[in-house]
Amino acid sequence: xxxxxxxxxxxxxxxxxxxxxxxxxxxxxxxxxxxxxxxxxxxxxxxxxxxxxxxxxxxxxxxxxxxxxxxxxxxxxxxxxxxxxxxxxxxxxxxxxxxxxxxxxxxxxxxxxxxxxxxxxxxxxxxxxxxxxxxxxxxxxxxxxxxxxxxxxxxxxxxxxxxxxxxxxxxxxxxxxxxxxxxxxxxxxxxxxxxxxxxxxxxxxxxxxxxxxxxxxxxxxxxxxxxxxxxxxxxxxxxxxxxxxxxxxxxxxxxxxxxxxxxxxxxxxxxxxxxxxxxxxxxxxxxxxxxxxxxxxxxxxxxxxxxxxxxxxxxxxxxxxxxxxxxxxxxxxxxxxxxxxxxxxxxxxxxxxxxxxxxxxxxxxxxxxxxxxxxxxxxxxxxxxxxxxxxxxxxxxxxxxxxxxxxxxxxxxxxxxxxxxxxxxxxxxxxxxxxxxxxxxxxxxxxxxxxxxxxxxxxxxxxxxxxxxx
Length: 470
Hints:
Blueprint: E1 2-5, E2 13-14, H1 15-21, E3 30-32, H2 40-44, H3 51-63, H4 69-80, E4 91-95, E5 98-102, H5 112-130, E6 134-139, H6 143-152, E7 158-165, H7 171-178, E8 185-191, H8 194-206, H9 208-214, E9 216-218, H10 224-240, E10 248-253, H11 258-268, E11 273-280, H12 285-292, E12 294-296, H13 316-323, H14 328-341, E13 343-345, H15 348-357, E14 358-362, H16 365-379, H17 385-395, E15 404-408, H18 416-423, E16 444-447, H19 450-460, H20 462-469
């Protein structure tokens, strides 16, 4: 399997090199040169199979001959073993024809664990193979950072540096990052928004000499391995609900577009998905893009679903690449307009192609809290605000005879204040995290400045220090 950049100018790479590159050298994102497909018979065989087995079979074509199948299967199984639920990603019915795909049973209580636990193992393997160290960096609106810290903590060949927007994540999300004491973990509170953090990470990847000097690799969903690791749970959920004999729809609460793009990948592989519904909070750039063809940034509004408080959805570039017929020059021009002028218009034919695959809906704060309360009253289940945004969007897109699966992306205890406001109940953290509030924190606060972050990394991370000593 070979990979090309969405902007058409970077070298074509294999899976292992894409894993370590993160962002392409031309600033684009890597996608497969061709989309692998699975037969109806193979998809049918997923019924009643364990999640890890399904995921390994889905991921294998993207890895190609970079790894033995047995080694990949062992890594996927080890990643799944970190989850508290025996089904890893179970499906729960909440209403006629409406289901939740519970993705929050991992060590940091969010869907990011599914990909991050595998990503850390893949990166470790590659570093051992090459004898190198790496500096893993990521921007987070809350959950990515915690998942990355947990997955990479204590690993000998990696320093992990996480940037989060100061005072714009939940207390639990913050503490899951800042209370980890391993020497290879570095958490930076940035004076700005998630988009500022994400821009700094992209700037560092674009700084070629710095990128090389510190062995930079990324854990955000700009890294293709993050996307492909999430495709498996779409197949597992659909198989549990009767695919491929009947189609299934998915609603995905999303900010950076990575999780729902994984659903698009599943559809390209042959999974019979009827509809992919984008669910956003009031930071609704994706809704506006689909309704008006106008992808234009606006002010980020803080909400009770902070992981979606995003205006620049990086993975949307991957979808634009497909919608524009894989024209890298066209995508590069659009991204140039976004950087220079804050937005662009999607051409008529590509917009029509996107609308054939996706719908979109947004929910405000009042609607989010009302949905949490209503679902609890109807089912006795407690859902977090991100999942509530998804449920609200899904309810307006139900189709008779087609199961709708809403991705439940986080444990409600991560957003206890909002849940308590909506239900009167205070959700409790699992026993392993019960003392989280009492653990000492370790964090560095920095301005939203790429130079300041680069200086911190150069002064702190082991890959840099070892290079200087040689």
